[in-house]
Write a structure and sequence with these properties.
Layout: E1 6-9, H1 15-24, E2 26-28, H2 38-44, E3 50-52, H3 61-64, E4 72-74, H4 85-90, E5 94-96, H5 103-118, H6 121-129, E6 150-154, H7 158-171, E7 174-178, E8 192-193, H8 197-203, E9 206-209, H9 223-228, E10 233-237, H10 246-255, E11 258-263, H11 274-277, E12 282-284, H12 293-312
Parallel strand pairs: 1-2, 1-3, 3-4, 4-5, 6-7, 6-9, 7-8, 9-10, 10-11, 11-12
Helix pairs in contact: 1-12, 5-7
């Protein structure tokens, strides 16, 4: 295989990455930056050697069946639940992602959501911008402190650990975590390992989700899990939208069982569940977890490294299938 691989980039990437791709490969860019249709994605499977999609592209079995030319799906992002891995494997298509480089950015955003939810920052800004703020008063928009509160981290991989480090060292929070096994990294945080999710939910003042989407994590935080959470606690999700039952979350927020929530991801983006849109006690962000210039460029360069390895017939740096 030559290094003039034909590559389709489905959305606009940082300029430096697009230039680097163009220097090495025969690259087709999506200048409109509009999501491609399922039929367009399926047609691309017969026209390109490598497909470089993002989370906004649903690479399902029907798309993958569109042609036999694509042999690499180089995903721009760490999550890959939007790609049918079984269908890709059946067709001999390798799949890669971009792990590691967005850890700090996503952990920063998790803390942003914790702070915004705890201090009711979204409510306050909406009140001020609407002209309804009447001035300072002792009982106005009372929120929660973070110091000495328990942050329960669900999933203790790179991003979960980075979030816990920021919360513990930066804000004096106590850390508990739910994971498949105990982590050596937890010792430096004096973090408590709780192998039962319900135990973690019942003792945490804030719960931050850091698990992959799909499979056994679908609706992991359902009505029963939400009922197990402490009254007056907060739920934060920077993982995948499908991890949470959003109708049940809306009920828990509306009833006051949860004091607040902060969400950056949703099950069917860019749609946001209607049940959440009218609630004041939920912070809703448009999937900004990795959205700083340094991280987005690093993600692109990581995807490029996988395409380069594929073109050279070498092992992929970041294979997921």
């Amino acid at each position: 295989m030559t290094d003039r691989l034909r590559v389709l980039v489905t959305r606009r990437w940082p300029e430096a990455v697009e230039c680097a791709l163009g220097e090495r490969f025969d690259v087709v860019l999506n200048d409109t930056d509009q999501p491609l249709s399922q039929s367009e994605l399926a047609a691309a499977m017969a026209e390109f050697d490598a497909l470089a999609p993002t989370v906004s592209d649903r690479i399902d079995a029907d798309v993958i069946a569109g042609g036999d030319r694509v042999k690499l799906i180089a995903n721009y992002g760490v999550g890959f639940d939007h790609i049918d891995l079984a269908a890709a494997k059946a067709r001999g298509i390798a799949v890669s992602n971009t792990p590691g480089v967005l850890t700090d950015a996503t952990a920063d955003l998790a803390l942003t959501l914790i702070l915004m939810a705890a201090r009711r920052a979204g409510e306050g800004e909406r009140e001020l911008r609407s002209g309804n703020w009447t001035g300072w008063r002792p009982t106005h928009l009372i929120g929660s402190a973070l110091k000495d509160k328990v942050l329960g981290v669900v999933g203790f991989g790179r991003i979960g650990q980075a979030t816990a480090e920021r919360a513990h060292h930066g804000f004096g929070m106590k850390i508990a975590y739910f994971a498949r096994r105990e982590s050596e990294a937890a010792k430096a945080l004096d973090a408590e390992f709780l192998p039962d999710l319900n135990d973690l939910l019942s003792k945490s003042d804030f719960v931050s989700l850091h698990v992959p989407g799909g499979g056994d994590t679908a609706n992991l935080i359902d009505a029963q899990a939400l009922a197990t959470m402490k009254t007056g606690s907060y739920l934060i999700n920077t993982a995948r939208g499908g991890v949470v039952d959003h109708d049940a979350l809306a009920d828990a927020l509306r009833s006051g069982h949860l004091a607040g929530a902060g969400l950056d991801v949703y099950p069917q983006e860019p749609q946001v569940p209607d049940a959440l849109l009218g609630l004041e006690n939920v912070v809703l962000l448009p999937h900004l977890g990795s959205a700083n210039a340094e991280t987005r460029e690093a993600m692109g360069m990581r995807a490029l490294a996988n395409i380069e390895a594929f073109a050279a017939g070498a092992d992929l740096p970041d294979p997921v299938a």
